UniProtKB/TrEMBL annotation:
Record-stated family: Belongs to the metallo-dependent hydrolases superfamily. Adenosine and AMP deaminases family.
Cofactor: Zn(2+)
Any one GO cellular component localisation term in the record: cytosol
Protein name: adenosine deaminase
Record organism: Demequina capsici
Amino acid sequence: MTLTPQEIRALPKVVLHDHLDGGLRPETLIELAGEIGYELPYADPDMLAKHFVANANSGSLVKYLEAFTHTMAVMQTAENLTRIAREAVLDHARDGVVYVELRYAPEQHCEQGLIMQQVVDAVQAGLEEGVSDALEEGYTIRAAALLCAMRQADRSLEVAELALANWGTGCVGFDIAGPELGFPPAKHAPAFSLLRDELFPVTIHAGEADGLGSMSQALGMGAARRIGHGARITEDITDFGTELPVLGHIAQYVLDQQIVLEMCPTSNVHTGTAPSIAEHPIHELRDLGFAVTVNTDDKLMSGVDMVSEFQELVDVGWSRTDLFEVTLAAAWGAFLPYDERADLADLIVEGYGLDE
């Protein structure tokens, strides 16, 4: 039975991979840009939204990332960061999301005098306000933050220390983001060494614009518990998509350890990581038992939300059971203590009516 958008919206969802700077409301971006005299490509929300999607749908991660210049311009004050984080949480709640980890790079929000701890404080205030606003509208959502270091920069150790300092007060994990090709995890070895010693949760963008070498470093030296995207794990699976695939040692490790793959179907198509939703490797990887999850990545840039992501998968054959399984995998993959993940999993089971 085909699910309607209304039925999909009502299902509980978990988002593990969503960038705060990639998900602004077009109206908010236009308003905040006007306040500082920053010129955007369009002043009309619909036209601006279409512009971002057209830019994203270039088949190039580098081109995709260029659009963040516009959002970063308005994310340099505590007030704006709090507002944007608040709206991000509320928007997810309205889409049926019950848990979201929003990621951002503190180092990118210091152009007007903020220090990185002030950035973290401002975003955390917004997350808390968003949860409160959602509750007033009748939605229950929990929101946490992942701190990103930019892989083309040299502040990863500083960001890792910042993440540790804020562990337990909203920050639940660490990531490196930005252009993957040419900037492997090895460039940030001191940060990952510190995080390994402290047993701090790590997810790493890998297997999107670069291949197995990037994923191997993420899993080994980076000790990543999850992989951001990871679609190119298929390069380590001979005869992928056939009845007799043969897994290489990296793919076998990811499968055996149930390393969560934070897949973002629409974004992966836009960056050229997958040719289409129908041909995305998420389908076969799911069938092989990999811990695949579905995420938005950048709501503004790709013109998506969790309802549309699920709808795209339903349109190519996914069932309600398929949606449940990837959501449950996301719940267990959240960077939360075991008992809290168990509670989240129970919430998913209840929301799908499977506890009766």
